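Protein 1 of 2
SEQ + STRUCT:
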Amino acid sequence: MKYKLIAMDMDGTLLNSKKEVTEYTKDVLRRAAKEGVKLVVCTGRIFTSAKSYARIIGTKAPIIASNGAYIREKDREEVIYEKYINKDTLIKIIKVSREWGFYPHIYTTDTIYSEKLIHSSLNYTRWNETVPEDEKINIKIVDRLEDVVNKEGENFLKVVVMADEDQIERLQGLKKYIRENMDVSVFSSYVNNFEVMDKEVSKGRALKILAEYFGINKEEIICFGDNENDKTMFEFAGFPVAMGNAEEEIKKIAAYVTDTNDNDGVAKAIEKFVLNK
């Protein structure tokens, strides 16, 4: 099978534990691109952050960001797909998260709002210290998220809730509550977080939209991932590859398990199945 599109999750997959893409992996990706294979970053990250890594690996294909809520060309303003959370639902999620003792973060395409500089907003504040001006993410700490939502309307792609280690059990309880009581999509990229999007949003649906956009069959797609939010992508792609460090649930539905993200697992599988080396 000649694969025409490679879809790659970022954290825990394309990026190693230092949040880097190794030179070996960059070289393999460049060789795949020279063969005409489209390289697609498919991540839960905000678009601006995903764009920065797409620049590093040299992909010219669109980026799937916010777990599939937003698909956009990296170097152009063309938005291929966007799906925002219903305003009333968003306010309910904010309120219940606060009641459970958490500080939710709400995301637009380039801005993160929170009531406290913690977790995502703190991490991206540190990120802003290391990247060029056009790749910085707007961080806004506000008094009340509800006021922002009422002002901005349906302009938000997702909600992120994160926990400290001693809060993880409670976080999982909140995740279960939202999943069972609200008509939304809920996914985790790691045990200490979950993200909430519109019910139609998933990486798998976004990959399907992008495949139709390019006229590529699902059998011609190879994808890489490591966690729960990659599951729908695995169910759609013709050849899903789990990382060696992936959750067991993801490994079970993979066609192949490669090496870990710290041992260039993505590059090794691309050489084996795409470049046939």
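Protein 2 of 2
SEQ + STRUCT:
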Amino acid sequence: MTHPHPPLPARPRTGRLPGLAVAAAMAVAVGSLAAAPAARAQAAYPTKPVRLIVPFAAGGTTDIIARVVASGMGAALGQPLVVDNKSGAGGALGTQELARQAADGHALAMATVSTTAAAPAINPKVGYDPRGDFTPIINIAATPNVIAVHPGFGARDYKAFVQRLKTEPGKHSYATAGTGSIGHMQMELFKSLSGAFITHIPYRGSGPALNDTVAGQVPIVFDNLPSALPFIQSGQLVPIVVAAPQRLAQLPGVPTFKEVGLDAVNRMAFYGIVGPKGLPRPVVDKVAAAVRQAAERPEVKKRIEDTGSQLILNTPEQFATQIRAEYGVYRQVVQAQKLSMD
């Protein structure tokens, strides 16, 4: 018996997927194609010279640390590292510049307590949030800070220094790397705890501040030790007190703030490197490795330690935690002392 209509042949299995699965597969394929160039770019990083923004004038500690590690970093990365000084607003201008750069690792910046804690703590219009607008990479070194005076000031030790300030209130001024710099914030804290009154003279970096103090235009400077030390060693400046865990081998006769009863002021500065927000982790790791490789060179390590600084070389996560902690400290200082940019 035959059927009037032969049965339809079974549909051959073609391996086709339902519509949604097809779309998903295509999306994965397209995503893989798009990700491939990005992955290759990260693997090849850097593909051109890397710009390292120093947000202070040449001659200051930030500039010194940047230039000490720059050549070694460039060798490790396989591209020149170009140090670019962009000073102003207590380091805020150069830091703002980094925030506008592409997150590809070809623009980095030196990060200090001034730029990531003190300046944003005192200036609500600084233009960035240090806790979220950057990618912390590595803290290179921690450095002591120092109050030093021109030899003509008269005082050559802490007791005489404070006595003169208190007997001549408002007569003297002090120089720093800028409003909102760590020197400004720590000196204001010193003033509040010691009862002294001194007028702040902000500069566009440690270099100009030191030059005017050495020239006698300003009698007092609060600065990082690496940039101030050569002038102290030459006798052009007289050290009064240092912010450091203990007395320094370079200045054995100079007390720490803790020794003179001002432990709250006894905070060291830091000098690290950050990238723009969203910097890929492979790039972060390459930059951090380049810094470590540079810092392990005996001549670089010695140059940094000879300034009284100590190498830190921590992880990105540790540096991020440190930035947040320092910002919190200086927010409290600003609020307690009612400081402002005015």
